[in-house]
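Question:
Now give any protein.
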Amino acid sequence: MLKKQLLYTLAALICAASAVVPNTATGNEINQLPKKRLTNTGGPLYPQATKTRDLRTLDGIWNFRKSPSDPEVGYRGGWYAQDLDKTGPVIPMPVPSSYNDVGEDISLRDHVGVVWYDRRFHVPSWWGATGQRVWLRFSSIHYAAEVFINGKSVMYHEIGHLPFEAEVSDLVSYNTSNLLTVVVDNTLLSDTVPQGTIKDVYIGPNKIRQDQVYTFDFYNYAGIHRSVFLYSTPAVYIDDVIVNTDIQGLTGFIVYNVTYKGTAADQVRCFVQVFDKNDTQVTAYNDCAGLLEIGNAHFWWPYLMHPEPGYLYSFKVSLIDPHGDVIDTYSQKIGIRTVTWSNTTIYLNEKPLYLKGFGMHEDSDLRGKGWDPVLWVKNFNLIKWLGANAFRTSHYPYAEEIYQLADEYGIMIIDECPSVDTDVFSDALLAKHKQSLTELIRRDKNHPSVIMWSISNEPRSSNKLADKYFGEVVRHVKSMDLSRPVTIAISTGHNTDKSGRHLDVISFNRYNGWYASPGQTQQITHNVVEEASAWHRLHNKPVIMTEYGADTIAGLHLYPEFIWSEEYQCALLSEHFKAFDHLRKAGFFAGEFIWNFADFKTPQSITRVGGNKKGIFTRSRQPKAAAHHLRARYHALAAADHGADLPDTRYYVSDHTPAKHEEL
């Protein structure tokens, strides 16, 4: 019976592999030009070098220019057809990074509209000599981008935080350098994901600038945020690998589907191998789709839930030609685990889950939202130090390398698309919202760390249009993936929300003692218990609190507790802890996520002192008192739920014995 169910899953996976949403019109400046552009989406496979593929990165220092207020100046001037430094002044710009904080110019930091990047690159001559296909992949550009190679438009992509790529074999030269030009537009409008508006600013009758207005509470960093890859594949190449897993007793099952493309592709076959951590082959199969069985399998477990968390197998696919030669190969780390849910509980490998973590941001000094491996290895070390087991990618998909680290560390992820403060609910917005989830699921579908999809943060879900809108979005997600629950981080009250009935898990954000009754902590425990219980009574589904917290200035100490102080943050957390312990006994409460892991930048505001200060760490990742407080709780929960060892979280004080006195 189990194998039959898994084969049904395989059929669903094959259908999901081809899911796509039609392209839609946009109001972004770089797409208002007469020439229509087709949206390019990311290749689902993360680039890697193998014996059949080669890989280069184009990270480094690029040339950069901020466009004048007229976004078509660069197009009319042919900036894409020659080196930027030949058409005017440029400044150096690191890639990956946000451009906003790199310079000393306020007009660059707050720029709204188009900017230009360029650099030159070489393609290895042997790629052309051996008939390799050449691919150019951008891991993320925010918000919209058009890419030119040697003066020719190659691809256009809208929606930041997600990869896009195109084959450029016919556009590159192997005998000389190639010019790569990228036009980036950070403008957010009513039909972008996320949304925003543009406000014209006047002094008297004279328009002096445009301001970007948005309701979400993080800075709209822009630029080439993640690595740029130049890579090769054979003429016939592996296009995608889809993996789903199941367990029965000690046996692990892998349902997979491999797709490949290229000329004469009908003459190749697939050979699939699975290797354990010791590089020992544990199973293999000669087919492009099938069911693999591993006896006495090592399952993927979260951190502190098992002595060996984050166990990963290597799933290797090879394309074999009629002569028995390998023409392409690709390997991917996979974890064998299941996620299921009932009306009260989320299960991983048939064990009840209790999620303990935080919302985060891709945010750091100088780099903004630029991918920073040093920062993220530090982040994961702090996550383990805290005893947390999960985080939410608030409020957009994070860099692919972060998910790879989460897989290895055994840290679970609620994977959130870029739709934040969703409003208006137009058909144009719905199409792009679906497209963002199509690209997200295609990218992240095989990560064992991803246990849930979040389709929005704090939408205006009391609007009557939200009911139909989110019903459509959830159906779209379910058409691609039935193996994970779907949630929304809801800020609307349970009495007016229109989205909850479509979800598998109810998640809610509430700031008792901060935005509601600031400085008052006595009512927090009661309010949280009552609201969580009300959500469960209404929908009969598991409930998670995905945001709570208080802004805290590091080093500010006030006692008795007073808002903005480290003492107040600890007191507010403690009152929530009491509520969570009460709810844990109620049987339907599935997790607690503090807001936020670390301080982060926001737009300028009289309510923000250099950004949002709700982090338990500073922006430079130094702990506030609340970090130590939260660490004691999270480790205590792991000990209670899974028998994990408690770390010594105290400094030595005393051996509690009286002093000894001897009379002479």
